[in-house]
């Protein structure tokens, strides 16, 4: 071929050849619309390059298959950092979820730096072990990741235990939702929440060491004026009354409180006023034998599902009452529990007021169940 | 009468116009070769060596005459086989004569000639050998440089003057002592004839050696099957006080069918550098005529199909390959082969500005899907522009160039038949890969370059490359190697 023709036509195609390719990839699956991409790298020697399949996806979930990602540390820098930033800036990526892997901190550092160029909104890290600490903070020239939601579930930082303190500097103060579940926290991490004043939702579930003391000591909650949702599932809470006190002391204005999966009991002795803003309360899976007496005044939604309620509660003021999975609805369980004495600290509302004003929702539980209850009357 | 006068005026006007139009060929050159005094000095030194060697092979013509001795009578002498045994041409100079050409001069040169002589008086014949030393030879010849109708340079010697300071004749042989009596006479005659002879030799040498050497410059050079380059002179070489400037056309044209160049060449204002021996001023029109030629020949249009991709590649040119970037392609035309047509809408133009070369090719990329019934359905049309900044250099005696990073690619969706396409992402990715992988490959091809108009046996050293407004300046020192 002649000199000028020596530029084979294929050369123009060359960069396209390096683009994400091959729909026959079994590792990463892009949905038909091209918005959601799921990558499963569980194989012993996974095809990491397949992640290119997700390049134009809006939501990406990556299952690391418990691999150790140290291998990526050896790879040198990006060939063209300026151009790489241009690519990052035009990505459609909004939600990223990383699960099950051992991530070296420098790699996480690179990832966070890359994310600062994108328009990502939600980041979820689940079942990760971050090795080779420390996690370096961003350099002064780096901007921050503009997340609205950060979810950390069972993520541990080798050596150092304070993951949030390490991640905090990377995030913009405009964070709205924060989940810190399964991190072994023993209290509400006030010092590290400092910058996130606009927080709407805080989830500290699955941290059994928090307990009521953790909640009571969380004075910083007062500063989060925008905090509406608070979740403390499975945090070793025992007493509704103390939870109420904790909320009173910290002066929060939560609207939705989820304290399910705790072994709760009602202690009516304590005088406590629930926050006036509380309109939704989740007490499911809490081994409650009877409906707590002191409930928030303006409560609109109450979830008492999967407890040990033997009688159908009368709560006319609650619009949305969820009662499934309770013994009174289940004849078999009811028969078993029939012989058991009612706990002393529960009061059963009188039958007179049963049929009048019964919320519509209760009618759904079935007439058969009601017929059962009639037959069972427990007197103190 | 009036009519005839008018028509006469008209005819002469037309004639004048034709003459003027034919002068349009003497337009601005594409390439200017500037030889400085330093270059001339080098050329001079090299020529002198050649000249010396050449002179040693020359046999001067025989030399004869009569002598008359008082009381002895007349006789004649004959000097023959005059071979030049040694030559020393010192103080040689090749000077510029502004507005005229060049002047070559030698001063205080020396030649030693030997040969045989014979003399006859009546019936007495004597012979012997002789040794002639010619000292203090000065020659000055003015060379007029021009161009002929074929566009090649011509050199003619106009004036020649020579002077010999002294001639020493040493005669040996029987009765040589007799001729020694006439030594002065013979010497002065030798001197006169030699003086004239020298100029004759020089003029002949210019005509038979120098002129053919200059004429060895190519006028048309084949570049490849598509293009050739026209190197003809567009005017005579011009001598200024510090350089000799030769204007060449420097135009690329199609071998199959030559069409006139559609644009006027701007004038090149070469800077007054004269540290190096030779400078080449190359107008960007040289590159743009090349671009025009190759564009017209269709070398810048390609159709890329799946079978052009080597079978060892995992990726094929099919719709599913692009699913990550254009998800709807996979949905609308699952697993069908594609075709890409790349066309350049106009020849890419190259612009020289001080320190910079800018190239802005514009390409259209039309993607098709090939349906099972071989029908091509258009998918989308992308327009891709790049602004490429390049450097230009020299490799040996060819001009080569390479593209610098920093050049970027802009893509625009001209038309889509399949809905929205994430052009910003494709553009960003192409830019990322284009520079790290495509560029080196392109540069490899640009390294091939095109040749500079050099006479045979000449190499370039100490190269200098600078871009100016509308042209490129190359400077170099010359090395003449004759094998």
Automatic annotation (TrEMBL), chain A:
GO terms for cellular component: external side of plasma membrane; extracellular region; Golgi apparatus; lipopolysaccharide receptor complex; membrane raft. Its main location: membrane. GO terms for biological process: cellular response to lipopolysaccharide; inflammatory response; innate immune response; positive regulation of cytokine production; toll-like receptor 4 signaling pathway. It is a lipid-anchor; GPI-anchor. GO terms for molecular function: lipopolysaccharide binding. Transmembrane segments: none annotated. This is Monocyte differentiation antigen CD14. It comes from Phascolarctos cinereus (Koala). The lineage of its organism: Eukaryota, Metazoa, Chordata, Craniata, Vertebrata. The gene is CD14.
Automatic annotation (TrEMBL), chain B:
One of its GO terms (cellular component) is extracellular space. The gene is LOC110211440. Coiled coil: none annotated. Residues 272-476 form the Lipid-binding serum glycoprotein C-terminal domain. Belongs to the BPI/LBP/Plunc superfamily. BPI/LBP family. GO terms for biological process: acute-phase response; defense response to Gram-negative bacterium; defense response to Gram-positive bacterium; innate immune response; lipopolysaccharide-mediated signaling pathway; macrophage activation involved in immune response; positive regulation of macrophage activation. Its main location: secreted. Residues 34-257 form the Lipid-binding serum glycoprotein N-terminal domain. Residues 1-26 form the signal peptide. Plays a role in the innate immune response. Binds to the lipid A moiety of bacterial lipopolysaccharides (LPS), a glycolipid present in the outer membrane of all Gram-negative bacteria. Acts as an affinity enhancer for CD14, facilitating its association with LPS. Promotes the release of cytokines in response to bacterial lipopolysaccharide. Gene3D superfamilies: Bactericidal permeability-increasing protein, domain 1, Bactericidal permeability-increasing protein, domain 2. Disulfide bonds join 160-199. When bound to LPS, interacts (via C-terminus) with soluble and membrane-bound CD14. It is found in: Secreted. This is Lipopolysaccharide-binding protein. It comes from the Eukaryota. The keyword Cell wall biogenesis/degradation does not apply. GO terms for molecular function: lipopolysaccharide binding. CDD domains: BPI1, BPI2. Keywords: Antibiotic, Antimicrobial, Disulfide bond, Glycoprotein, Immunity, Innate immunity, Secreted, Signal. It comes from Phascolarctos cinereus. It holds the Pfam family LBP_BPI_CETP. InterPro entries: Bactericidal_perm-incr_a/b_dom, BPI/LBP, BPI/LBP/Plunc, Lipid-bd_serum_glycop_C, Lipid-bd_serum_glycop_N. SMART domains: BPI1, BPI2.
